[in-house]
Amino acid sequence: MSFTSIKLEHKQQVLHELRNIKQQFADRNWFPGTSGNLSMRVGDFTADQFHFAITASGKDKSVHTAEDFLFVDQSGAPAETTDLKPSAETLIHCEIYRLTGCGAVFHVHTIFNNLISEWFGENGAVPAQGIELIKAFNIWDENAEISIPILPNFAHIPSIAELVENVLDPAVPGILLRNHGIYAWGKNAFEAKKHLEAFEFIFEYLYRSLLLNKSNSN
Ligand SMILES: CSCCC(=O)C(=O)COP(=O)(O)O
Ligand SMILES: [Zn+2]
């Protein structure tokens, strides 16, 4: 499906939804120092051709302007003529869409996701077991255990993007970049937000249990 054949109302609806999510995350201080990026797919999906709206790079994501988002194609190139630059991390979004066919990808830097990704960094994954919010990933087993992948935080984004395929687990809709932040996705913005919130709950839970265990052993 070409970008021009996607209905204008659909594109506007997606921008409206992204703007709302951006506001909600900004209110939680989830975009410190211009960090973070958000995207939502528009139109039909094939692994070879798709389009999505994404935050422009380097903006203060706690303020709203007419230049907050632009549309890009499956390679991360702008789909329309614009002076705006897509997020520096667009290629990671491209790869997540290509591999999952999802509808939205949200990336935030928080203290808890940074500390936990660094703590478990050498293991390449964060183990989480028996935490109620695992059910937000539609995993309902009692005492369920998941493993949240961690990729190295290379400065060269294409080198990170090419590793996504090796670690992506269809049952776990998120990937951490070590000491950087998390990417969470879902079939739509509602689900991507639910997943992101569940991951952040799990990271805070793990951080606090590590501290509790440490103080108990002293
Ligand atoms: C200022 S944090 C470093 C860049 C980053 O990790 C990020 O999430 C924001 O980059 P963008 O190009 O999307 O603004
Ligand atoms: Zn980032």
Automatic annotation (TrEMBL):
NCBIfam families: PRK06754.1 (NF005244), salvage_mtnB (TIGR03328)
Binding-site positions, Zn(2+): 107, 109
The keyword Lyase appears for this protein: yes
SMART domains: Aldolase_II (SM01007)
Enzyme class: lyase
Name of the protein described by the UniProt record: Methylthioribulose-1-phosphate dehydratase
A GO term for molecular function: zinc ion binding
Function: Catalyzes the dehydration of methylthioribulose-1-phosphate (MTRu-1-P) into 2,3-diketo-5-methylthiopentyl-1-phosphate (DK-MTP-1-P).
Entry's Gene Ontology BP terms: L-methionine salvage from methylthioadenosine
Highest taxon in the source lineage: Bacteria
PANTHER family documented for this protein: METHYLTHIORIBULOSE-1-PHOSPHATE DEHYDRATASE
HAMAP family from the UniProt entry: Salvage_MtnB
Domain Class II aldolase/adducin N-terminal: 16-207
Gene: mtnB
Alphabetic keyword roster: Amino-acid biosynthesis, Lyase, Metal-binding, Methionine biosynthesis, Zinc
Pfam families xrefs: Aldolase_II
Cofactor(s) this protein cannot do without: Zn(2+)
Cofactor: how bound: Binds 1 zinc ion per subunit.
Pathway where this protein functions: Amino-acid biosynthesis; L-methionine biosynthesis via salvage pathway; L-methionine from S-methyl-5-thio-alpha-D-ribose 1-phosphate: step 2/6
Catalytic reactions on record: 5-(methylsulfanyl)-D-ribulose 1-phosphate = 5-methylsulfanyl-2,3-dioxopentyl phosphate + H2O
Keyword presence, Zinc: yes
Family: Belongs to the aldolase class II family. MtnB subfamily.
One annotated Gene Ontology cellular component of this protein: cytoplasm
Enzyme Commission number(s): 4.2.1.109
